Amino acid sequence: MIRLDNLTKIFETKEGTTVAADHVNMEVQEGEICILLGPSGCGKTTSLKMVNRIVPPTSGRVFLGGKDTTDYDTITLRRQIGYVIQQIGLFPNMTIEDNIGVVPRMLGWDRQRTAKRALELLEMVALDPAIFLKRYPKELSGGQQQRVGVARALAADPPVLLMDEPFGAIDPINREIIQDEFLKMQKQLGKTILFVSHDIDEAVKMGDKIAIFRAGKLEQFDTPDNVLAHPANSFIADFVGGDRTLKRLRLLTVGEVMDAEPPRVKADDSLSSALQLMNDTDYDNLIVVGPRGRAQGVVYRSVAEGRQGLCNDHHSGLKATVRESDDLRTAVSQMFAHDLTWLPVVDDEGFYKGYITQRGITHTLGRTYRDAEQGA
Amino acid sequence: MARASLRFSSLRLGGRYLTAAALLLVGIWLQRAGIVDDLMTYWGDIVYLTGQHIELTLISGGLAILAGIPIGILFSRPALRRWADGLMQTLNIGTTIPTLAVLALSMSFLGIGSTPAIFALWVASLLYIVRNTYSGLMAVPDHLIEAANGMGMTPGQILFRVELPNALFVMFAGVRTALAINVGTVPLAFLIGGGGLGELIFTGIDLNDNGMMLAGAIPTAALAVAVDALIGYAAYFLIPRGVNPLR
């Protein structure tokens, strides 16, 4: 969808020439979010701005949907690309409605259609149109303004979005919220997005692909998991951090790692049958489920070995549970908090869905390294 | 919040009483000093000359706005920006040279009458408008321009939809200063036969006739205050709410 072909930018300054982007080649598939990541001055922003020619390339080409962008005149090109910047850049002289309507009006939409679109978009970015349509930007908080900034970029439904550190100036709590909202929105919209960030955590969270830049060169272009698990060189390894494997916890959900059909016992099963099941399946504890399958407690091996009776009378309560859709970070955090090496996985209703262990997690995280060794 | 605004409005109310009382006192003093009688003596002249005065201000000020805003816009365009400071210095000469000298110079080129007066007043007002238009436009944040560019606005659309509306407040301040100075300078136009309330002021001085002088001076002062207030109101209502610090 977006292809950069030997894209190069050389700035002539008084101190000499600076190569801001050096023969950058990459291709972003339709519907993907690609994060351009790197320290400041690495060329990520320059590369982004060459796509809508805010920065004219020195050489090289940009293709959108297979078409060379130099075939369009600059104005037409930019009206087909949503653009979000860190400073947001809402026009203070216009109401929120007018701000969102800027591109539609330039494209010649009639008043009614433009107004309807503004309403629809405000709802999409979780701002109440009744309150916000007629307000001015200065009356909104930073987070609200950036939501409007995103809405404005989406106004004419462009297939491509360019976002230059869009959430960089928002406080950490609101940033998390707005990122989550944005991802939810993107799931429906399926835009092709180039997104500049200097924050590895944001990149891992938001990106389908990550492109890491250093000194104008594209150093690695890969999925977040591969960037974290197999950094191409020591610069990237340093940049993504010594705790990079921990960061991968975010990329996997509990559902991907858990034992999906774990053995279980019913409340009226005897302890001896529970012990038998443990021996057969190599589990050290079993979840006790109710008649319809809700997780109610746990029977430990030590209990089953030392006592007689029904599971119902000898089980302990569950200290913590996780859901299939939680990421591994949440699961590990729960384990650490409760001094456990395993957790039952339940759904929203409390039904027992699976069983996740620290061993299972480390095994899964380690698999990619073992594969790499075997490949080598 | 409610209490604060209550206090504010009671303050304003108090201020209004004070103003009314002060006006009353001034009125009594004017009456006692016989100035009201003097004003009434020259009433016909005052009305006629005030009309002339306003005409001179409107024409020279109007021309200064018509020329000053486009010049300010031109200076702020990327192609001219490098030269803007130098050009501004040139215009500055118009303000640095005493208006009396400008009047004398323009008289020597254009003869006597209202034309050289209008030219001199135009020169004296121009810089304020150019300078505020230029600095207002230069103060528009870069990221607004970048956002506008990124959305595919043409340079003209950026100027009229983004830059000018956001510079409007500063531009209005320039027009306000220019016109207030213009109104105050018009009396000098009398010296080169331009007419206006200067006729009463200077004749009054020459004849040592205080009443006649005040009959020119008081309306001039009142005009200056009125013009200032008028433009203040215009700014309040014409500048969009989002970029109007007064609203």
What does this molecule look like?
- The complex is a heterodimer of chains A (376) and B (247).
- With 376 residues, chain A is of the alpha/beta class.
- Chain A has 18 helices and 15 strands.
- Chain A has helices at 44-51, 74-79, 96-100, 102-106, 111-124, 129-132, 142-154, 172-189, 200-206, 224-229, 234-240, 244-248, 254-257, 271-281, 301-306, 311-314, 328-338, 358-375; strands spanning 2-13, 16-28, 33-37, 59-64, 67-68, 81-85, 160-164, 192-197, 209-214, 217-222, 264-266, 285-289, 295-300, 342-346, 352-357.
- Chain A has a six-stranded mixed β-sheet, with helices on both faces. A four-stranded antiparallel β-sheet of chain A has the order 2-1-4-5.
- In chain A, strand 4 (59-64) and strand 5 form a beta hairpin.
- The longest helix of chain A is centred in the middle third of the chain and has 18 residues, at 172-189.
- Chain A is elongated and about 80 Å long.
- With 247 residues, chain B is mainly α.
- Chain B has two domains: 1-32; 38-243, MetI-like (MetI-like fold), CATH 1.10.3720.10.
- The two termini of chain B are 17 Å apart.
